Amino acid sequence: MSPRSASVNEELRRRSRERFLQAAVELVGERGYEATTLGDIADRAGSARGLASYYFPGKRQLVQSAVHRLMHRTLEEALEREPRTEDGRERMARAVDAILGLARDRTVLMRQHMAGLLQAEGFVQCPEQRRLAELLRDTVARHGSPDVDADYPMLRSLLMGAVYAMVLPNVGMPLAPLRAELFARYRLDWDQGVPPDAEAPGGTCDTDCSRFFSTGRPSADRRHAADGPMPVDQSK
């Protein structure tokens, strides 16, 4: 059998990393951060424990990257859904609703994410976080900001504050008043975006997030071969 090409190996590594991201989102959302181990994530991803350390410095970095992926793909999907629009106010409304919707629908996951941001390492600089920042900066620019460098951090902070308020245990605020405050600040009409009172009973939560992760899961008997050469597991 001829050796795999560099491009094939790169694609297999990408898919393996994607499986770790998806598994982290699923497990932390189900169990919480502390109750989820790297071994649990590796098992859900169908990969060896050592590969988690190969792709990510640690569990905190993996989980932050995974949540940032979910956030930026959710935001991207909201901004580009039909009917497509270039209207800056509508795009801002969709962005606000996308992030607040995650706090409402994936409360445990977003609570753990916010707690992680308060740790010493803060934001993890990763491709997922950078893509999220690009989408929010573009939203601010299309909304008509004369100074994106100043207005983007403000939008990010306001959204983080709203998410924090929603996910606080026992005293979390409901979505509607926070949405109203943000909509007033950005001069948005209540019927723009996805108004809470326009949703079907039970909300719009979609528990299947697999569409946000291009995993291309291999079959069980090929799984470890597809992951490529095994790095040495330093965790033991």
Can you give keywords for this protein?
single chain; 236 residues; 10 helices; 61% helix; 0% strand
Describe the structure in your own words.
Helix 1 (about 5-30) crosses helix 6 (about 105-115), helix 5 (about 90-105) packs parallel to helix 8 (about 150-165) and helix 5 (about 90-105) packs antiparallel against helix 9 (about 175-185). Helices cover about 60% and strands about 0% of the residues. The two termini are about 35 Å apart. The model is unreliable at about 200-205 and about 215-235 (pLDDT under 50). It has ten helices and no strands. With about 240 residues, the protein is an all-alpha fold.
* Number of distinct helices: 10
Uncertain parts: 200-204, 217-236
Q: What proportion of the residues form beta strands (DSSP E)?
A: under 5%
Largest sheet, in brief, is: none
Order of helices and strands: HHHHHHHHHH
Helix fraction bin: 55-70%
Mean pLDDT across residues = 85
What oligomerization state is this entry in? single chain
Q: Give Rg in angstroms.
A: 19 Å
Number of strands: 0
Give the CA-CA distance, first to last residue. 34 Å
- Structural class designation: mainly alpha
- What sort of overall outline do the alpha carbons produce when their principal axes are compared? globular
